[in-house]
Amino acid sequence: MAPNDSADTNGTAPHGTARGVAGRRKAVRYIVPVAVAGVAAATIGLVPALASSGDPDLPEITAQELIEKIAASDTEQLSGTVKISTDLGIPSLGGLAGSFVPDGAGDKGGASADPQAKLTELASGTHTLRVAADGPDKQRVSVLDNASEYSIIHNGDQVWAYDSKSNAVYHAKEKAGKHTGRGEHPAPDGVPTTPKAFAEQALKAADGTTSVTVGGTAQVAGRDAYRLVLKPEQSGSTIGSITVAVDAKTGVPLKFTLQPSSGGKAAIDAGFTSVDFGKPAASSFSFTPPKGAEVTEADSAGSREKAAQAHQADGGLGALKGLNAKGEGVTVTGKGWSAIAEIKTPGAAGKPSKASGDVPAEAQQLLDSVGDKVTGTFGSGTVFKTRLVNALMTDDGRVYVGAVTKDALVKAADNAG
């Protein structure tokens, strides 16, 4: 969820926005990578948006202009409520979240208040969040439950997380001069919690591989907005389209909707149900551990910063290195929407695999029952599917994973030999 500051750090900016940029952009600006704003006209719709019947009647705008509007947004203060609905075709990850906490997430990765673990629960179901931001140094996001609340508060060099249900606290202190710049809220890298965060990740994949157009107008949280529509031009992607509702006045993404190529209901639908661009109360960013709370101290921010840089460098697929004890044996092929990670598991190094006969029969029976058997020149294996991300596990211990179809995974395995 860190804002992408590449438009400043490399000395360039999307055309038409340079005069509003001076040094590092404010951390909560809705910044689009330079590569996205500069996509060739052949892939960006140049036809202005026209309001449909019943939608707001707004001035015409092109996709290029709308992307620049997002990039130029200087909104520093906001508060509101966000509803996130996720239907990836997988069971709730709440009980498994602690198993996937990467290095650097904290000394006690399984702590009940650890943000990396808790926010993974957003990967399924419907959740209501309260968010607030007041500049780059003050943000708060709270996940509301029926009888409890989980909050992350960033104030200056202090980051706190509190789970009211378990009365557990997580605390991290950023090193001097090492501001993480995560921006609108202090959620862990790779765990989007607002429409802006979702949109930011989607736009990173748009360079040269995406049709970008304006699909009319809408009203979101009582505000007039334009619809920015992204559609992969590459074949084999499980992503059908992404629609981002952009506030007509501020340029802030208000709603993010991802439709899978297989059809049906949205796989991800995240949008503000209420939003206020005024200054939030100072008390929103204050926190003192309650009496009797168990406090877990995190590792230094340096390890999280390093992980964030690696995440940005490989489009997020670097997180899959967590499946390999040493982070070795991971190769990413393709780009944009068709990127596929090949992971050499222990089975590929002569350790337990189906081919070796060392996988327990009960475990292999379970794997076979939930996946689709496939064959190719690579041999044979099993494809495990969700509505967005699919994975092929070969019988000799290799894994291919990406937001691509089963056929694309098989082809990748064949090409790898």
Quick overview:
The protein is an alpha+beta fold and 417 residues long. The chain has helices at 6-9, 34-37, 63-72, 115-118, 195-204, 301-313, 361-370, 406-416; strands at 77-86, 125-134, 138-144, 149-155, 158-163, 168-173, 210-220, 223-232, 239-247, 253-260, 268-276, 294-297, 330-333, 340-344, 372-376, 379-385, 390-394, 398-402. The chain has a 12-stranded mixed sheet, covered by helices on one side. Strands 13-14-18-17-16-15 form a 6-stranded antiparallel sheet, with helices on both faces.
Give structural notes.
With 417 residues, the chain is an alpha+beta fold. The chain folds into 2 domains: 6-313, outer membrane lipoprotein receptor (LolB), chain A (Clam); 329-416, TATA-Binding Protein, CATH 3.30.310. Helix content is 16%, strand content 31%. The protein is built from 8 helices and 18 strands. The protein has helices at 6-9, 34-37, 63-72, 115-118, 195-204, 301-313, 361-370, 406-416, and strands at 77-86, 125-134, 138-144, 149-155, 158-163, 168-173, 210-220, 223-232, 239-247, 253-260, 268-276, 294-297, 330-333, 340-344, 372-376, 379-385, 390-394, 398-402. The strands form 2 sheets. It has a 12-stranded mixed sheet with strand order 7-8-9-10-11-1-2-3-4-5-6-12, with helices on one face. Strand 2 (125-134) and strand 3 form a beta hairpin. The protein is globular, with a radius of gyration of 22 Å. It starts with 5 loop residues before the first helix and ends with a helix.
